[in-house]
Each structure stands twice: as structure tokens, then as C-alpha cells.
Design goal:
single chain, binds ligand ME8, alpha+beta, 26 strands, 6-stranded antiparallel β-sheet
Length: 625
């Protein structure tokens, strides 16, 4: 089973940014997933280096185009390295081998009678390297795609008889509904096809930076024709047919929506013209904005992805892109959302669960994973619920519903946290019910193993770390996902540091941006007397599974007794000695018959609850302002 996946080859007129990184990262996630599922994967990316736009960019900085391209292609390669991209090939359209293939391909189209000479009169957008028909543009003569000014050109060109392929393409779309995805992008292409195709000018004579037309070197081949051919030249067409046949047709051309027409109409027509099979799927994903704005150099938000990698790590960036931008649709990239996802999904739901589970394996089993001893209904149900999600994840990954696949992993984490809290292993330990304790700990570890495997294409580094901590070092395969009970009891586990560090991001907000009806005066806040307090003792309130009774040292205010609803999140003895924060001037109240003389402060996010403590040493009873 083979799987050939490609990204667009990126223009080298400027540095890579979050947009180009997005497609490459997503392609890498799919490539890694397919490898894990047992496919012979070829993952191709590269750079698009010919055409008027690149020529202009090079001359703007006073460089000859080839050395300009060499420098920029190097920067793309470095970035992909930094991002842990596992591409098998990197094609540059200025590679001599590629240029030969372009000439071979175009010659074949000529021989098949699909290319003729004529005069092109019409509009051209240099930034998009795209020809536009009169009926596609308005009276303002601006590019329908990027909004910039079009150039009128009139020159003798070679033309590709694209019009001839309207019906055969329509037929292909009908027979292969999966050919263009998502569906709404397929419909856009169908509309264009149903309107009938026009022939396409495929050479230029006003500059030389491109592949010369065979036998007519005054003409250079249109940069899009040159570029699209990369998908076959990179895997050996036509000079290494053994390698070519091993991977062609491509299983997935992953692209952005703005270049769908080239990939879903022009490219298939070119392939039919030379007699090659068509790619199986063209997936045109949506566009990212950054903090709500289009990514552009002039707006200063064409951010170097390295910034995020250095600040948060590769895994977090990859996870965020898949989790928060609904794959296929347009989406907004924001550092604030990235930090929120890191703190809640990764640090809390994933990291904490791993931490508290392995801490208990360490404490009660000297870090040796116990074998599960007895299953009750809750244990069985948990196992089933996890395995249902594993199956759903595979199906969703296979159909490129990547964001929904990530949601399945997060559901397993949610279920595991719930199972852990419900089973209360700390109580089982106290009761010395080791047969039940071993089962909970084993099951949560096995669920965490599944999570780490499912996350491994998305977050390879942290997955590797989790697998190591769970004492698992086999090469990942589908079998380990599909079967329960993969972890060997008796392996040595490692408790380790927190898996993900929480981050904070300070956001300065103008008062006008705050929700005005929420604002209070400082005097109102001052009415609340906050104090530090040291926990002297803690115990469960009898007959309640929610409440703990704490005896606190509040310095000059003496001792206080507080009842707090935190029993599901803390073992009482773990609170003793902590300096926490309480509201000291709250009217006393009775909870389950026990008097509470104040309340403690805690943070809650829907899944977890943590008591607020102070940073460093401070006396009990200290005031807080
Ligand atoms: O079009 N959001 O190259 P290019 C999401 N050389 N994806 C984005 C993006 C954004 N804001 N900005 C860029 C070309 N991309 C041609 C391709 S292929 C034979 C030739 C991604 O450098 C997205 O994949 O303009 C988009 O299609 C691609 O970068 C465009 O890269």
C-alpha cells in the first residue's frame, strides 16, 4: 500500500510564513499518520522559482534570480527542518532534471495536438501569475483573486486546448465525487466546468526566467504549467518509470483554496493530454487570518513560524493548528487561543492526567505498572468508550476530517479524567483495595498509550515522551491502536516532569474593549478581605463525596475552619502545609452540618479544579490587595 502526498510548491518571492507552514504541517501530520498505518509514503514539498514575480523580487534586492532562489529555497528547507517536517522529497523548479521533464511533458502535449500558436490579448495578474478573461473581471481591472492591478498583455503565445477537456473533466467529477474536497470546493469547480473552459495561454515572451519552450526558446513556459509538472517530475517521470509507477497517481494534493482551479481543472486536463492517470484527491483547505487579518507582509503579520516554535514548541503549534482551525474551512490564528488550548487541553487534560496516574503507580507500585486484576461495569464501559473513539479517530483521519479526529482524542482524555475521578484510586489505596486500584491505574495508562499513539502524527515529541514514560518502546503500528491491553504490566514507568508547561500571555486591553457592565469600583473590591492561610489539617466531611474540612492558621486572625467543595480534586493530606487564599470576612455558613468560617479560592475550568496558592514564602494571615 502506497500513499503519495504533496503540498503546493511555494513561491520564493518572500520568506515562508504561518500560511505556508500550515499546509506543510498538515501534510506532515497526514504523512506520519499514513506511515504509522503501514503505508509506503512519499511526501513531497518544494519551491516554485520561475516566472515574472520571482524575477521582480530578485531584481528588487539587486540579486540574480538563481542565487536569490538558492537563498530562499534554503530558508524554506531550514524552516521545514525546524518544524520537524518529514518530507521525502524537496523539488525546486530550477532543478535541471525538473526542467527537462517540463520540456518533455509539453512536447508530448504538442505532439498530441493539444498546443497551438496564437495571439494572447488580455489581462494578467503578476502576483497571482494568473490570466483572467474579460468576463471574469470588473470595469476596475483589478485581480478577482488578490485585488491588485492587472496588466494588459498582447503577445504571440502558445495555447493549451483546455476547452477540449470540459466534458471529460465533468465526467470524471461525476464518476469520482471524492476527487475534489471539501464538497463546497468541488461545487465551485463544477460551476466553472459547467460554464465551459477557455483555452489557456501557456508561454510568455517578455522575459526569460523560465523553462524554454521546446524548439522555440524565444518562449518560456508559463510558470503554472512548469510548477504543476513538479508532482510527476519529482517521483521520476518519465526517466525513472519504476519509481514513478510505485507512487503515481498522487493520493492527495493538499493545497489552499485559491489555487484549486489550477489543481482541479488545469492539471487534470494536462495529465489526460499526456495519458497519465489523475490524482485521487485534491483537497483545498481554507485560509488562515492572523488575529482576524489577512496575512500579508505589508500588514506586518506575515509571522515567522519559528517564533511560535521557540516560544511554545513544535508540538503545541501543530496541535493548535489542527485543533482550532476547523480543517477545510477558513480560520483565525491567534496566539491567545494557542495559549488557551495549551493550558486547558494539553497541560490540564493530558499532562495532569499522566502526572497523577504515574505518581500513583510510583507511590503504590514502585513505578512498576500493575496488571489489572478485576473489572467491574465502570471499568468495562470505560474500555469500550475508549475503543469506540479510537475507531472513530481512524475513520476521521482517513477521510481527512482532521479537526474532528483530534476531538476524539480529547474525548478519550475527558473520559479518562472522569473515570479516574469516579474511581477515586486514592481512596482505593487507602482502603488497600489493590485489585481495584491496579485496574484503574492500568486502564488509565492504556488509555494514555492510545492517546499518545493517536497524537503521535500530530505531536511527535510529546508522544514519544509519554510512550517512554509508559515503558513502551515498540515501533508504532495500527495493531497497537486497534487492540486493548497493549501495555505490558510489570514495565517500569517514569513519573517525570509536567508534560506541558502552562503559559501566560498578558493582554493589554483598553477600558473601552472591556465588557462595561462587568466593571466595579475599587472600593467594591476592597470590601472583600482576602488573606493567606496555612492548612494545618484536612479531612473529608463524613457522608459527603464533595466536601473537605480544613483547619487553617490565619495568623493574627487565629485559627479558622473552612469547608470547601474540593474533595473530588484533592486528597486531604496533600493540602496540609499549603499556603492558600481565603475570603476572611464572609458570614459563617453550615455545609452538611459543619460550620464554615470563610471560603477558599480555587480555579475551575470545567474539567479540573486547583486551589490558589501563593508564589513563595509568606506568613499566614497576610493581607492581599
Ligand atoms: O500558489 N492560509 O505558491 P504560494 C492558509 N507557487 N494557507 C496559506 C495561506 C494562508 N493565509 N497563505 C499561503 C503558489 N498558504 C504556487 C503553487 S503548486 C504547483 C504552485 C498556503 O507560495 C496554501 O497552501 O503562493 C496556499 O495554496 C499556498 O500556501 C500558496 O503558496
Amino acid at each position: 500500500m502506497k500513499f503519495y502526498i504533496t503540498t503546493p510548491i511555494y513561491y520564493v518571492n518572500s520568506d515562508p510564513h504561518v500560511g505556508s507552514a500550515y499546509t506543510t504541517i498538515v501534510a506532515d501530520i497526514i504523512a506520519r499518520y499514513k506511515r504509522m498505518m503501514g503505508y509506503d509514503v512519499f511526501f513531497l514539498t518544494g519551491t516554485d522559482e520561475h516566472g515574472q514575480k520571482i524575477l521582480q523580487a530578485a531584481s528588487a534586492v539587486g540579486k540574480d534570480p538563481q542565487s536569490f532562489c538558492d537563498e530562499l529555497a534554503g530558508r524554506f528547507k531550514n524552516l521545514w527542518n525546524r518544524l520537524g517536517i518529514t518530507n521525502d522529497g524537496f523539488i525546486r523548479t530550477t532543478d535541471e532534471d525538473h526542467m527537462k521533464v517540463v520540456q518533455y511533458f509539453v512536447k508530448k502535449m504538442l505532439e498530441n495536438g493539444d498546443i497551438y500558436k496564437g495571439v494572447y490579448k488580455g489581462w494578467y495578474c503578476v502576483p497571482c501569475e494568473t490570466y483572467w478573461n474579460e468576463d471574469e473581471i470588473g470595469s476596475d481591472k483589478l485581480c478577482p483573486s488578490c485585488g491588485r492591478e492587472l496588466r494588459y498583455i498582447s503577445e504571440e503565445n502558445y495555447f493549451f486546448r483546455l476547452s477540449k477537456y470540459t466534458d471529460v473533466l465533468l465526467e470524471h467529477y461525476r464518476n469520482h465525487p471524492e476527487f475534489v474536497q471539501p464538497d463546497f470546493r468541488r461545487n465551485e469547480m463544477l460551476k466553472i466546468l459547467e460554464g465551459g473552459l477557455k483555452d489557456l495561454s501557456i508561454t510568455r515572451t517578455t522575459f526569460k526566467w523560465g523553462v524554454p519552450m521546446p524548439d522555440d526558446p524565444e518562449h518560456v513556459i508559463y510558470v503554472w504549467v512548469d510548477a504543476l509538472i513538479n508532482y510527476v517530475s519529482a517521483i521520476g517521470y518519465p526517466f525513472n518509470m519504476e519509481r514513478f509507477n510505485r507512487y503515481w497517481p498522487a493520493d492527495l494534493h493538499l493545497i489552499g483554496k485559491e489555487i484549486n482551479r489550477f489543481h482541479s481543472i488545469v492539471w487534470p486536463a494536462m495529465l489526460i493530454s499526456v495519458g497519465l492517470p489523475l490524482p485521487k484527491v485534491v483537497f483545498a483547505h481554507g485560509w488562515l487570518t492572523v488575529d482576524g487579518q489577512k496575512i500579508s507582509k505589508s500588514l506586518g503579520n506575515a509571522i515567522d513560524p519559528t517564533y511560535f516554535v521557540e516560544k511554545y514548541g513544535n508540538d503545541v503549534l501543530r496541535f493548535y493548528l489542527l485543533r482550532d482551525i476547523n480543517f477545510g474551512k477558513d480560520g483565525d490564528f491567534s496566539e491567545k487561543n494557542l495559549v488557551n488550548r495549551l493550558n486547558s487541553d494539553l497541560a490540564n487534560d493530558y499532562g495532569n492526567l499522566l502526572h497523577r496516574t504515574l505518581a500513583m503507580v510510583e507511590k503504590h507500585y514502585s513505578s512498576i505498572l500493575p496488571a489489572p486484576e478485576k473489572y467491574d461495569e465502570i471499568d468495562e464501559k470505560f474500555k469500550e468508550d475508549v475503543m469506540i473513539r479510537v475507531k472513530e479517530y481512524e475513520k476521521l483521519m482517513d477521510e481527512y476530517s482532521l479537526t474532528q479526529a483530534v476531538e476524539k482524542i480529547l474525548e478519550i482524555l475527558m473520559l479518562s479524567n472522569k473515570y479516574f475521578d469516579e474511581k477515586r484510586p486514592w481512596v482505593l489505596a487507602k482502603q488497600k483495595d489493590y485489585s481495584a486500584l491496579s485496574t484503574v491505574l492500568y486502564n488509565v495508562c492504556e488509555a494514555l498509550l492510545k492517546v499518545a499513539i493517536m497524537f503521535s502524527p500530530i505531536m511527535p515529541d510529546s508522544s514519544k515522551e509519554v510512550l517512554t514514560r509508559l515503558g513502551f518502546d515498540s515501533k508504532l503500528t495500527k495493531d497497537f491502536l486497534d487492540n486493548w491491553g497493549v501495555l505490558k504490566s510489570s514495565v517500569k514507568t517514569v513519573h517525570g516532569k509536567p508534560l506541558f508547561e502552562k503559559k501566560e500571555l498578558s493582554f493589554e486591553k483598553k477600558e473601552s474593549e472591556l465588557k462595561v457592565d462587568n466593571l466595579i469600583e475599587i472600593d467594591e473590591f476592597k470590601k472583600v478581605e482576602l488573606r493567606t492561610a496555612r492548612v494545618i489539617s484536612a479531612e473529608r466531611v463524613p457522608k459527603s463525596d464533595k466536601l473537605l474540612k480544613l483547619i487553617l492558621d490565619v495568623g493574627e486572625l487565629g485559627q479558622r475552619q473552612i469547608v470547601a467543595g474540593i474533595a473530588k480534586y484533592y486528597e486531604p493530606e496533600n493540602l496540609v502545609g499549603k499556603t492558600i487564599i481565603i475570603v476572611a470576612n464572609l458570614k459563617p455558613a453550615k455545609l452538611m452540618g459543619v460550620e464554615s468560617q470563610g471560603m477558599l479560592l480555587a480555579a475551575k475550568d470545567g474539567v479540573n479544579l486547583r486551589v490558589l496558592t501563593v508564589d513563595g514564602n509568606i506568613a499566614p494571615g497576610a493581607t492581599i490587595s
